[in-house]
Structure prediction request, 420 residues.
Amino acid sequence: MTSSDRTVVVTGIGVITSLGQGKADNWRALTRGVSGIKRISRFPIDGLKTTIAGTVDFIAVPEPSAPAMSERLAELVIEEAIAEAGIGRPGDFPGPLFLALPPVELEWPQRQALAAASGANDSVTYDDLLRAADSGDFTAYFRRFLFSSVGQNLADRFGAKGSPIATSTACASGGTAIQLGVEAIRRGETDAALVVGTDASVNPESLIRFSLLSALSTRNDPPSSASRPFSKDREGFVMAEGAGALVLESLSSARARGATILGTVAGCGEAADGFHRTRSSPDGKPIIACMRKGLADAGLDPDKIGYINAHGTGTPENDKMEWVGVSAVFGERAGSIPMSSNKSMIGHTLTAAGAIEAIFSLMAMRNGVLPPTINYDIPDPTLPVDCVPNVARAADVAYAISNSFGFGGQNVCVVLGREP
Prediction:
């Protein structure tokens, strides 16, 4: 295998966030410091501590549910990415699908429909629900609420080859999907891979669960000021929806068909942390190892990195631990490397974050502009980060890293390059 066969490039991207649909709308809003966070309107918010989110309300599905909406968002970004790459034929993508997807479970509207079918007048037991499911035609529910359903539907629609691989590694899932695609190309299993991260988990149950973990911002008014990564007064993240798709190819394949190369995935690093279900290990070792593995995989010294797309959730713990990791890996340079957080504008897109933020990192290098971290009003003296505060910045960056650190100790670092 030649070096051009092992070099993985990006030839197509597609993105949807609370800022809009498509590369152009997202990039315009992102570089202008626009926030997509808004008051939740799709379900009642009375009594909730957090009443805001980065919802994608301009896209609708006939029967709303997180899997259905996640699938629709994925369809739209895949269409954009494949069109830009100009690869394959409609319904015939020449490679496998690697999908980052949130956990799938039966949601309350469907549970209520089952309860109604059970005929129980007062309390409804689990046995009642099982009998109702067996007696009625709930085949559509069964098919929809299988974890594999979204991946299989997408693979069928776009003609991806082989069995689709769906992964759910918390907030690192998008980075994990990219890593799987890179590894498949490097092993020579395929010349191209379709990588997607999608998440539409803004529903009452998810909001309450994260609220019970004290993870969400309660700065509800105005919504645009809620997400405050690296700021001293940060107090939680903002849930959001979105999707990102990347067409990955070997360099030799892309050149052979005359494709426009948007950047490279130079390396990937992963390190697990079993310290706590939500907190990082206090010594930061897994985060440090994750970034160092990514740099080693890319064959780069730390001084080659010109930009860090931070995980930067805006929770007190996460931002602190990311700085601990960056300080250890980059030493004296840590405070001078631009390190901004897209989540200040789009919110935390959870399972999709790694894919979306890798896309924005590629666009930053290609366009020579670093998106800002908005709402940075009160610097935290314990985090001397150059977070590109409040206003976008012109910069000539050859290599960047995109960090994704998930609950449960899932850590992925993707190293990206501007040129092959």
The mean pLDDT is 91. The CA atoms of residues 311 and 403 lie 5 Å apart. Residues 66-85 form the longest helix (20 residues). The chain has two domains: 3-105+146-417, 108-144.
